[in-house]
Design a protein that fits this description.
With 118 residues, the chain is mainly beta. The chain contains no helices and eleven strands.
């Protein structure tokens, strides 16, 4: 199992930047693919970005491509989401999640609020 704790959320003006971090417990972090998801009020949770176990493969939702960057540091058991050129529509609770051998995102953090003011 793995436990995930997000940090780095906050209030930022449109056009600003934030860097989210997700720290994982355990010694097998590198065996998990990781993802960032978000859920805005009244909306379904959506995938923002994913990264493979070694970091060689990355996926971005169309709405964030070119503005957000996902990365990971397996030595530090941490995955990051650098968010630039933030827009009010990026406002949401952001969650990180881990996908193991089940090929499903079975482990989730508690979420961190990101609010972008116009």
């Amino acid at each position: 199992q793995v436990q995930l704790v997000e940090s780095g959320g906050g209030l930022v003006q449109a056009g600003g930047s934030l860097r989210l971090s997700c720290a994982a417990s355990g010694r097998t972090f590198s065996s998990y693919s990781m993802g960032w998801f978000r859920q805005a009020p009244g909306k379904e949770r959506e995938v923002v970005a994913t990264i493979s176990r070694t970091g060689g493969l990355r996926y971005y939702a169309h709405s964030v491509k070119g503005r957000f960057t996902i990365s990971r540091d397996n030595a530090k058991n941490t995955v990051f989401l650098q968010m630039n050129s933030l827009k009010p529509e990026d406002t949401a609770v952001y969650y990180c999640a881990a996908k193991g051998t089940t090929n499903k995102y079975d482990y989730w953090g508690q979420g961190t609020q990101v609010t972008v003011s116009s």
